[in-house]
Design a protein that fits this description.
This protein is mostly beta strands. The chain has a domain of about 70 residues. It is about 10% helix and about 45% strand. It has one helix and seven strands, in the order βββαββββ. Strands 1-6-3-4 form a four-stranded antiparallel beta sheet. A three-stranded antiparallel beta sheet has the order 5-2-7, with no helix packed on it. The longest helix has 8 residues. It holds the Pfam family DUF1883. This is DUF1883 domain-containing protein.
């Protein structure tokens, strides 16, 4: 099994509903990745994974949970110098999604 060559800060968001907004505050430019439980497992093994987010050049940044499930946020410095401290909070709770029926 491969291992990551850099450290990261991990936030386990547990079960979240689609539409919940997460606010991440950083002290420096860093990568912020919002990912599902299965993608977080791939990330930890340094394997190809999918995520919402990317390089955060401004702080705070807000990301929205795209679908209900178990979610994680990771802050890492891969490709960046120095370190960044981070904090996270849920700023909006989701309302039940509204579906439209086709006529």
């Amino acid at each position: 099994m491969r291992k990551l060559k850099f450290s990261f800060t991990h936030y386990d968001l547990k079960q979240q509903r689609a539409g919940v907004t997460i606010e991440i505050t950083l002290t420096a430019v860093a990568n912020v990745r919002l990912m599902t439980d299965s993608n977080f497992a791939l990330y930890k093994q340094a394997m190809k994974h999918q995520f919402v987010g990317g390089v955060a050049r401004k702080s705070p940044i807000r990301l929205t949970i795209p679908q209900s499930g178990h979610w994680h946020v990771v802050v890492d410095m891969e490709g960046h110098h120095g370190q960044s401290e981070s904090s996270i909070r849920i700023v909006e709770t989701a309302t039940a999604p509204r579906f439209q029926s086709a006529s």
